Amino acid sequence: MRGICANDARLRCVIRAQSAAGLVLALLSCQGKGGSGAAPAGASPTPSAAVSAAPVAGEAPAAASISAVAAAGAPPAPGTPFSPDPKRYPWLGDTREYPKPDATLEARFPAPPGYTRVKVDAGSFAEWLRSLPMAPEGTPAKTFDGKESLAADDDYLAGVVAIDVGSSDLQQSSDVIVRLHAEYLWSRGERDKISYLSATKLNMPLSRWEKGQRLIANGASVFWAVKSKPAEVDHAEFRKYLDAIFNWSNSTSLSPRSTPVADPKHLLAGDFFLQSQSPNHVAVVLDLAEKPSGERVALLGQARNPAESIHVVRPGKATPWFSVRPPVPVSTPHSKALAWEDLRRLGPAEPEK
């Protein structure tokens, strides 16, 4: 996976002497993400039994804090024909290869009988995730090199998100939450909030990329260096920035960039389960529904290693929804059970010093 020795995946170490030109701004010991020969860090898929849906006592999830910046677009009204919106989901306007969407997450996966989707604030990350564009039914999950990783009729594949994987083995498991979160902020014009950490806690903000600085590898180290003139970053260039982030971040670097969700009753779409110990894995809560009694179910998104399609996983063919009954762990087919003490939420980026 990413660059620390504690992870079990094979890691790429880029050894290249850098030119004396370029201003060295930070120097930290690190290793890059594994190349195409990286061994999968996830556990072998183990089919899980259907998760029971015992009643859950508790309040409805708390509302997310929303920026005053207006959202670039609004979700479609229920029942309206699907129309891809590259302003709201910017990668839809790129030339990179991705499965063409034909529905939103909300339309593809109706709430189970007796449940209604939880209320979300307008412009929130949770609302944005609810309208994620989905690839047509029958789309398999594929790895970065085009190989089928999950068949379209796989018992545990509910659907594939219509978003690119990239052409290199970079956008792996823990990068799912980073990719979605960064795209959400970009769509809202909140570029100053886009910043993530390397495995050795180096701040990697988009603002440095805009200034012409680049993340440079030298042996087992990574640092920022001026490599070009400052320039306006379009979405295609932003996608290159994200690949650089994926190369130097990992599941461990998500911990200091996020905070624990201490009370599972406050679970929100956009929260994620972080398994930072080998085998590493991240599962993102994409949506929530509940009964009047407080019983809740969730849609979970993931991608494994090597880099593959971001997809909605399911407990079995009967339903795409997982029962969430704290403190009972959530059993999933491609990882260890998701423990509630591993539930986290991305917080504000640390300001540049």
Condensed summary:
Helix content is 12%, strand content 20%.
If you had to describe this structure to a student in words, what would you say it looks like?
The protein is built from five helices and 18 strands. With 353 residues, it is of the alpha+beta class. It has one domain (41-197, 250-353). The strands form five sheets. Strands 3, 7, 12, 13, 14, 15, 16, 17 and 18 form a nine-stranded antiparallel beta sheet that branches. The chain has a three-stranded antiparallel beta sheet with strand order 1-11-10. The protein is globular, with a radius of gyration of 20 Å.
Question: What is the general shape?
Answer: globular
Compute the separation of the termini in Å: 29 Å
How many helices does DSSP assign?
A: 5
Radius of gyration of CA atoms, rounded to a whole number: 20 Å
Low-confidence stretches: 1-30, 34-72
Q: Let me know the largest β-sheet.
A: 9 strands, antiparallel
Q: For the residues shown, what is the average pLDDT?
A: 82
Helical content class:
10-25%
Characteristics:
single chain; 353 residues; alpha+beta; nine-stranded antiparallel β-sheet; three-stranded antiparallel β-sheet; 5 helices
Write the layout of secondary structure elements.
Elements lengths: L27 E2 L73 E2 H4 L7 E2 L7 H6 L2 E2 L6 E2 L5 E3 L6 E4 L14 H13 L7 E3 L5 E3 H5 L2 E6 L2 E6 L8 H14 L9 E3 L11 E4 L5 E10 L5 E7 L8 E3 L8 E3 L18 E4 L7
